Predict the structure.
Amino acid sequence: MFSKILIANRGEIAVRIIRALDELGIASVAVYSELDRDAPHVARAGEAYLIGPAEAAKSYLNAERILEVAGRCGAEAIHPGYGFLAENAAFARACEEAGIVFIGPPASAIDAMGSKTRARELMRDAGVPIVPGTVEAVATLKDAERIAADEIGYPVAVKAAGGGGGKGFRVALEPGELKSAFEGAAREGEKFFSDATVYLERYLPDPRHVEVQVLADGHGTTIHLGERDCSIQRRHQKLIEESPAPEWIVDEALRERIGTIAVEAAKAVDYRGAGTVEGLLDSETKEYYFLEMNTRVQVEHTVTEMTTGIDIVKEGIRVAAGEPLSVGQADVVLRGHAIECRINAEDASTKFAPAPGRIGAYVEPGGPGVRVDSGVRAGSEISPMYDPMVAKLIVWDADREQATARMLRALAEYEIEGLKTLIAFHRALLATEQWARGETCRDLLEDREWLAALAFDKPPAAPPPPADEGEPVEQTYVVEVSGRKFDVRVIGPPGGPGAAAAGNGAQPTPKRPTRAARERSAETASNGHDGDTLASPMQGNVWKVPVQAGQQVVAGEIVTIIEAMKMENEITAHKAGVIAELPISEGDAVRSGDVLAVIRDA
């Protein structure tokens, strides 16, 4: 067994892995960006090392720096968690070359399953059913139009070959939507996975998303731990997961069939460690199609742990150390029912717009059958630099109905001040008849009126500064103390100590907006828009501006795409008219309430 492991991740999954290492008696090493300097996972680990600035590309995705730290601290293995470098075959190979064990599958398995087109081809050849569509990349829009019209039919899904987690996934319900879907999927594939190639699948309008947890060791044993139903999704990204699936959806015979499919899929690529085979299930015909394999520990591994009693993270570590699995297929028994709610920093009432911010008071729920996996505490900042997850709330009880009641109780106990989260959304959805009947709830997730009822109360307006004083100025400095960097904010009157210090090599923040601009922004933020003004519903960066000043637009037309918390958010015109003002450019940073465009009647 290993004596020291480095965790190449952050947030709740880093804390989860550190806890497993503590129980196994293995020393833990955390890495962190400048933004995460005071994060719980840093304090929780035995050692911690700064690896770069806030941007993920310069820190958590900096493979060279992470390997350098691992070598310096004497770590024998690296656990990548999920996201970042978890499914990066090149990083797995680099670990091997550096003499460090990558806790995950072989690079060859990551390669095989990392390309969705290659994975579909492998599964087809292995006799595993796949969703009808292409097994090769579709090179051009013209090719996509021909294939969609002649071979697949509409609606059609356009997917990035290297995509995952809902990114690089677009749907064209009819021919007129294919161009936007094709370009959007390719763009996200390039941005998030450095691969702009896409493929096409038949889009199944209301399937159940059912996945199977697998474990495999290097001694010839591959098993499955039953299924999870992850059908409650927005933007093809999961919100609520449960295990097992409702019994009227997946019975014992179907569980055995899809479990066998998952095991065969893992064996086809000589898999080792923890992984998940995802599939789509037609609840009427019971047809099950392979969708993709996630070659890592899943976010929702928790519900499977609750129903099987098997620690998936520990099993993955043991396998990486060369040990056999501690359980066989006959030992896997599902008991009771578990539900996980992702507590994201999002505003469901504004189409699940990311809502970064700083947590005030923070109290996690407890009691029988309640588990919280989090990487935050009071004062933690949920930054737009990373994904919007605050925590995962998991409950277990004897059956689905009782587990739902327990989850509602736990959600009511959860206190997170100063931040918009999905707690109210989860409480509302779990109280519906649709959830009780085990439906996918897609009608609710697309019902703007239902979601709008979940709007947060407007915060009280801040009092204006005294009229006889100048506007206070906020400056941010990077201060080095004993080799450690700190961000220090100084707020004071113009020309005061904060302003004077700016000339001493410090790095001040950009100039603040004028009072008039801030008041206009605040008014717009509270009202959504003031008739002609289109305001930003979130903080983020302007990724694309496909319109220009003077252009005529129709209601619903894309005005800009804002990237926030690893998601692309299409901001559309709230009315038809002419774009009279367009004060944004690609690359600009915007805050919630900032003016994106002014659209006047034509």
Observations:
- Residues 252-268 form the longest helix (17 residues).
- The two ends are 71 Å apart (CA to CA).
- Residues 337 and 399 are 5 Å apart (CA to CA).
- The chain has six domains: 4-103, 132-202, 207-325, 336-456, 473-503, 515-600.
